[in-house]
Amino acid sequence: MEILKAKILALKKEKNAILLAHYYQDAAIQEIADFVGDSLGLSQEAEKTTADIILFAGVYFMAETAKILNPSKKVILPDLNAGCSLADACPPDLFKKFIEQHPNHIVITYVNCSAEIKAMSDIVCTSSNAIKIVESIPIEKPILFAPDRNLGNYINQKTNRKMILWNGSCLVHEAFSLDKLISLHLKNPDAKIIAHPESEAHILKTASYIGSTSGMINFVKTNPSKKFIVATESGILHKMHLEVPNKTLLPAPVFENNTCACSECGFMKLNTLQKVYDCLLNEYPEINVLENIRIKALLPIQRMLEISKK
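Predicted structure:
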């Protein structure tokens, strides 16, 4: 593994490539990435990079976003099958009809969607900035929000809005078992539960903190508690352990038993260190977005990034 890491680092230098990795990637990939972050942070890094090649260790919609922001750069993804249940839950033809059924609504879409969906949007958001984005819209303006109903419900609750929600969800964040979570907390009453807003409402009600992956990491760093139950994809635990090595981090349990009794994104885990190397060596698979779609999708992403700077 160390030899493979060294080969990847050498190739990055040789090809003037940058490796962007999401918190949900395997630890070995995170360790050699130039930047590890959540969707907002990754979008911001993609926007400002001077690299010739962007190797995106994440899922397809993230690499698409990088290409939308960088049409002249080569964007590559280790595995083209690294998709997203949220993006899959919002087909462009059905979403177009959804918009047509609700004229005069501002269309806000969560970044976990395809380029085609972004192209139909007025503004994009991430879990880091969703509330800020929604609050930037005048209260009298009706809003459509897609594709995550759980995040949409959470935003409605926090902003007192009545956004009309697309009925999509993240399989990873709907896998948590409330009964098992309560049982785990009873065994660890000193632990604080922290959760991602893509989780279902009954999970969020148990949480001391609700936020994006970067927000959750910051919370465990700054909160005096020594033990946390973490309700999001288990890949985040690697970065958390690095930030707070003296604290105890417990993954929130899921309905079904699996290798770690935690919630894992099968799409994210399709990327491996070997695939990262092969991808950079061959500069393939490459991500391309039709220019007419890219131009339309660029504006709502730029609006998001501008609001996030304020």
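Summary: Residues 17 and 53 are 4 Å apart (CA to CA).
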